[in-house]
Amino acid sequence: MATSLRAAADGTPPPAPPSSPTHRSVPPPPSGWRSRFYRWDLRLSPYAFVSPFFLTFAAFGLFPLLYTGWLSLHRVELGGDAEWKGLDNYANLADSEFFWNALANTFTIGVISTVPQLLMALGLAHLLNYKLRGRGFFRVAVLAPYATSIAAATLVFAQLFNTDYGLINTVLGWVGFDPVDWESSKWPSQIAISTIVIWRWTGYNALIYLAAMQAVPQDLYEAAALDGASRWRQFISVTIPSIRPTILFTIIVSTIGATQLFGEPMIFGGSLGVSGGSGNQFQTLSLLMYEKGWVTGALGQASAIAWVMLLLLLLIGAVRMFVARANRKKLGA
């Protein structure tokens, strides 16, 4: 006010008031081709960012899947032309003893390897969930087998289960048992292969269970302890129900892995690994598919086996969804 009066007395105009922040001038939007480019950029940029995934999936996932389905309906030999056969490849699989043998072997090896693996993983996770000295070391140690190469682990176990000089037969001889033919007999060979799978994946599943157990509220354990529940009762009545979705997840993933089992039996069998041993005693669906496609050269039959495996995995996924939905309804009730 004093400044304005002084300026009026001197005959000079008063200074302009400072501009308010709310009256800042906004630059006009771009016009013409710049405006159109601006709008296209806003609309198309998100799709451009996610397009690499979809392009990669289309090239290496969707196209091989559709092309394999097309091959499964044809008689295709390596280096030859495709001949339409319709569902003949699937009908031949239904009449093939090798297919049903491979399917049964896949199922038995999957059960022998999955059930002990998940039970041992639950026990390890329960132990690691308590305050132990060196918990970090033990958690890294149980994950070490998963980081080991399949080829290296299988070669070591193949030496351990060697019929003539393997450590397993040596130990059995010390306690009075006869040597076991781990490679040529059906059940011993499947047990040996399942042992490799158990050794590699138990620690991985244990860490998944451990992460789920650490998310369980401690109030539940405190309430159970006040009621006089022992650690075993807490594990059965509190831990298992709380991590049931995680257990179901590991069952599904382990079942999928067992259905696609390939590397362990392939390397364990040595020169006879493709055929699953001298009598196909541990030939899985993946080994049969490989044999049909790259040894026999029947790409159509191999593609049919691949689609049968896909249908089995979809069936397993449907069962998982049904069980999860039933659990949600039970909890809601």
Summarize it:
The protein has about 325 residues and is mostly helical. About 70% of the residues lie in helices and about 0% in strands. The chain has 14 helices and two strands, in the order H-H-E-E-H-H-H-H-H-H-H-H-H-H-H-H.
Architecture overview:
With 333 residues, the protein is mainly alpha-helical. Helix content is 71%, strand content 1%. It is built from 14 helices and two strands. The chain has helices at 2-10, 33-71, 88-94, 97-128, 135-147, 150-160, 167-174, 186-214, 218-226, 231-242, 244-259, 263-268, 285-296, 299-332, and strands at residues 74-75, 83-84. The protein has a two-stranded antiparallel sheet. Helix 2 (33-71) packs across helix 14, helix 4 (97-128) packs antiparallel against helix 11 (244-259) and helix 6 packs across helix 8 (186-214). The N and C termini lie far apart (75 Å). 25% of the residues are buried.
Mean pLDDT: 86
Strand content: under 5%
Oligomeric composition of the shown chains: single chain
Number of strands: 2
Radius of gyration based on Cα positions: 32 Å
Give the distance, in angstroms, between the N- and C-terminal Cα atoms.
75 Å
| Helix coverage percent | over 70%
Strands side by side in the biggest sheet: 1-2
Structural shape: globular
Largest sheet: 2 strands, antiparallel
Return the structural class. Answer: mainly alpha
Spell out the helices and strands N to C.
HHEEHHHHHHHHHHHH
Would you identify the regions where 5 or more consecutive residues have pLDDT less than 50? 1-5
SS summary, helix count? 14
